[in-house]
Amino acid sequence: MNGQSYTTVEATTADNTLIVESSVTIGTLTLKKGNVKLYGKITTSVSKDTGWSGTIIRCLDNQQSYDNLIADNVSGYTSILIEREASFDASKASANAAATVGKPMKIAANATIAHLKMHVDQAAVSPIEIIDGAANVVFDDLTVSSTNEQSLVKVVGNRSESHYPQRFSVVDFRQVQPVRFQYSERRS
Question: How far apart are CA 173 and CA 177, in angstroms?
């Protein structure tokens, strides 16, 4: 779905995923089967048919998708994913520039993120994980905290040594304070 507004959408995606792009606005989304990657906006409600067992993931790739995330209080998303190259400034959010993000974020693509505030209460999860696919991630003025014992920012990789030498490490910030952090993967 791309570039339109819809009053009501019913989604049955088999085992596939419905992708709602950042320029799409949906009033009511009814989920019958499958998963949702949500860059866009849901304005009224999300209903889930009996037996629906998919997941709703809030995805980010630009300022509009971040604005949609901050304004989202109806989708029930469980996590945040950056799987496309992304750039956004949290202080420029149209709805609430002082908002604190409360769900864990996986970054699997290059990203430049400014003025992000995160506090994640979920047990046994790092608030931010940088994973394969993210060769260059820049945080400018990152504030991140959690109530669990996991690393606040975790960098992990699965690539085989024969294809890409692993140069991944785990980064652990235990103090809650604004930092400038840049991660770049080194390839030989």
Answer: 9
Q: Give CA–CA dist 28/6, Å, rounded.
A: 8
**pLDDT on residue 96:** 83
Separation in Å, CA 114 to CA 62, 70, 88, 181, 187:
12, 15, 6, 10, 26
Cβ-contact 85, 107 below 8 angstroms: no
Helix, strand, coil shares, percent, the chain, to 5 = 5, 45, 50
Q: What pLDDT score does 7 carry?
A: 75
From the first residue on, what is the mean pLDDT of each consecutive set of 10 residues in the chain (188 residues)?
Answer: 69 75 92 91 91 92 94 93 95 85 94 91 89 85 85 72 39 45 54
Residue whose entry in the numeric block shows the structure tokens 């490490």? 169
Q: How many CA atoms within 13 Å lie on the side-chain side of 93?
A: 23
How far apart, in whole angstroms, are the C-alpha atoms of residue 24 and residue 1?
A: 7
Q: How far apart are CA 37 and CA 175, in angstroms?
A: 32
66 vs 140: CA distance, rounded Å: 16
Of 125, 121, 118, nearest in space to 141 by CA: 118
* List of residues 6+ apart from 159 with CB closer than 8 A: 132, 166
> Closest by alpha carbon to 153, among 134, 129, 119?
129
